[in-house]
Amino acid sequence: QVQFVESGGGLVQPGGSLRLSCAASGIIFSIAGMGWYRQAPGKQRELVASITSGSRINYADFVKGRFAISRDNAKNMLYLQMNSLKPEDTAVYYCNRRLGATNWGQGTQVTVSS
Known about the structure:
The protein is an all-beta fold and about 110 residues long. It has strands at about 5, 10, 20-25, 35-40, 45-50, 55-60, 65-70, 75-80, 90-95, 110. The strands form two sheets. The chain has a six-stranded mixed β-sheet with strand order 2-10-9-4-5-6, with no helix packed on it.
């Protein structure tokens, strides 16, 4: 069964940092393009960053220079290092496959507020 379990969210002040983790199971993780997504209240889910099986990386313009995506294929883990956080980064963050995303997990809440 495909499953994604996100963790690492929390409450942080503007300018702070968080590191999100995602444990993936039920897929051949090493050949899967993966992504981090987020959904803010009242808004549609959006792609934040993606990484291919060959570690080619893309970022949404609104996080470039602040966030860094990485993966550990040996552990079936996906990570998102988030620096210089802004209030507008407040959202529930999810991980999933970059293409054909299904079986969404519960996500992890990130709240940026003073």
